[in-house]
Write a structure and sequence with these properties.
The chain is of the alpha+beta class. About 55% of the residues lie in helices and about 10% in strands. Helix 9 packs parallel to helix 10 (about 305-320).
Length: about 400
């Protein structure tokens, strides 16, 4: 029953194709055989068994083309009267009309199943065994015909042209399709990794920033005067809950970014685009309303496209790792710096996240450099971006950046 289920066709079109193949093969076999009205005995002894072999070959050929190739051995190129070409080999043989690549009406069908064998059979051992059997049949035919050297030439070219060459074409086609499938899967995997990295970046930039500001505001309320002990305790629990939520978010981002660091956050054929969001003054204003001590220095000229993500990352890190510290944000057309002093209260998050790694990749793709380092008990995030139409001198998108140290924020 299992083998019968494997013989089922997957679609009506396959059924139609196989029926047409079987009908064409049967017509050609009948045309090659004896006339059923003039010589019914020979027709019954030769043509009918060949019809049976053709029927079984077509039935199993789609699933097991090598079996069909073996079944069609009696219909192989074992008649050397007609060929693809006739050559004069009097310089080697006494005969002039040596047939090269003998052809029979059934040869295209045999070549088709030889091609399917190479196309669908991944293992080479069964194919080699079958070709050895086919070669033995060819040798037996030549010996039966007298062993003339001309017959050997015809037989060898018949084996090569009817069996070997179509099989090798099938193998080539199978390997090309395999390479194309692997390339497509690789592209899809890279696209999934890029999307996961983008989701992780967006979650870090939006939710991480908001949770950090919630923790800052809760820390400010916890130190405010006039609150009852129960209220101070509730505000402290709120701050701890915001800190725990930030840590869980960092773990989720780590899962999303798992095995995704090798994939770029954006396609490599264009610079990284800034994530849509608030402007730099709006980010600074919202952080100041939340209780952060911030000073904003804006230089003249256009603001860099990556100024928003850089400022947001710097403010988020300052809120989590240096609560209560004064923060200075400096933005010029080609440089963005976020510098904070030492923390005044206990930090609300642990170090070692992926925020700077994501931002460093975006800056690299934009052709800039990123420096993140401890400074005077605090921390400084410094991003330098090239002028418009200025080519990256290292052609590496900021390969000169220093290696991150364990003292960096996330």
């Amino acid at each position: 029953m299992r083998y019968l289920r494997q013989l089922r066709r997957e679609s009506p079109r396959q059924v139609v194709y196989d029926l047409l193949l079987w009908a064409g093969l049967c017509v050609i076999i009948a045309a090659m055989g004896a006339d059923p009205f003039l010589d019914p005995a020979r027709f019954a002894m030769v043509t009918l068994p060949r019809w049976g072999l053709a029927t079984v070959a077509v039935l199993v050929g789609r699933r097991w083309p090598l079996a069909a190739l073996i079944l069609l051995l009696p219909l192989g190129p074992w008649r050397f009267a007609e060929g693809f070409a006739t050559v004069d080999l009097t310089w080697l043989l006494p005969r002039r009309d040596v047939k090269i690549l003998p052809l029979l009406p059934t040869t295209p069908f045999v070549m088709w199943y030889a091609y399917l064998t190479g196309r669908r059979l991944a293992r080479t051992t069964p194919a080699l065994a079958a070709f050895c059997l086919i070669t033995l049949v060819g040798v037996a035919v030549v010996l039966w015909m007298g062993g003339d050297l001309a017959w050997w030439v015809s037989m060898v070219t018949a084996l090569l042209g009817t069996y070997v060459v179509p099989y090798l074409l099938g193998v080539l086609r199978r390997r090309l399709l395999h390479q194309a499938r692997q390339a497509r899967l690789s592209v899809e995997a890279q696209a999934r990794l890029r999307e996961r990295a983008r989701i992780a970046r967006d979650m870090h930039d939006s939710l991480g920033h908001d949770l950090a500001l919630i923790a800052v505001r809760a820390a400010g309320l916890e130190l405010a005067h006039g609150l009852a002990p129960a209220q101070v305790k509730a505000v402290g629990e709120l701050r701890e809950a915001a800190s725990e939520a930030t840590e869980r978010l960092r773990q989720i981002i780590g899962i999303l970014r798992d095995d995704a660091d090798a994939a770029p956050l954006t396609p490599l054929d264009r610079p990284a685009e800034p994530a849509p969001g608030e402007s730099v003054p709006e980010l600074v204003h919202r952080a100041a309303v939340s209780g952060m001590a911030i000073r904003l220095d804006l230089a003249g000229g256009p603001m860099p496209a990556l100024a928003g993500p850089v400022v947001q990352e710097g403010l988020t890190n300052a809120a989590k790792h240096a609560p209560g510290a004064e923060v200075v944000v400096s933005v010029s057309p080609h440089r963005v710096r976020v510098r904070n002093g030492p923390p005044r209260t206990r930090p609300t998050a642990r170090r070692g996240g992926l925020g700077l790694a994501s931002l460093r990749e975006r800056v690299r793709l934009a052709g800039g450099t990123l420096t993140a380092r401890p400074l005077d008990g605090g921390f400084e995030l410094d991003v330098t971006l090239p002028h418009e139409r200025e080519e990256d001198p290292c052609r590496s998108g900021g390969a000169r950046e220093p290696v991150a140290t364990p003292s960096e924020h996330d």
